[in-house]
Give the backbone structure.
Amino acid sequence: MDPLAQPLFRRLLAGLFVLLAAAPALAERADRDKPMNIESDTLRYEEQKQLSTFTGRVVVTKGTIVMRGARLEVRQDAAGNQNGTMFAEPGGRAFFRQKREGLNEYIEGEGETIEYDGKADSVRFVRRAEMRRLAGATLQDEVMGSVIVYNNTTEVYTVDGAPRSAGAPSSAPGGRVRAVLAPRGQGGAAAPAAGESAPAPAVPLRPSTTLPAPGPAQ
């Protein structure tokens, strides 16, 4: 090899090594890019509508996401984005749970209907809605209302406390929004296992004063 070209070659080789070393981190994908695994008693698929309907003790896993309910409708667009609407048993509520990125924290909640938007990476709890933030297994924050929308990308949530006269009652008395917020800086996360580094400090969710408009009907 030309001696003048050797320094350039070494720099290129070093750059390639850095890229290869970073590959596992780059390969880590968000929940919205993971496959959706569904268990149910029955399945009905409609080709023209691109609609799959699962009924009977439905359980969904998608990365760290877990959903449970009585009936699930799933649509997928041409780009592969998946949207799911979970319905509860009459008188009951469906369940949703998802891990927060890079933290030993989880978002979980219930509603009579739960709408998951894979493209926006957001979840919407409708009627008798309740959402909680847990550090490990310790409850940190809890909000209740008629409609709760949580965006996993921006980590912003909105709560609508619709009055009872507007329709179905919310889980909060009088249709008002109810919230219980833990003091910041008081760690509630589970202790790290032996050999593991301490978890990142708790990062509070950010409430918004504006409720996003609902998307197209599923």
Q: What stands out?
A: The two ends are 64 Å apart (CA to CA). The chain has one domain: 33-193.
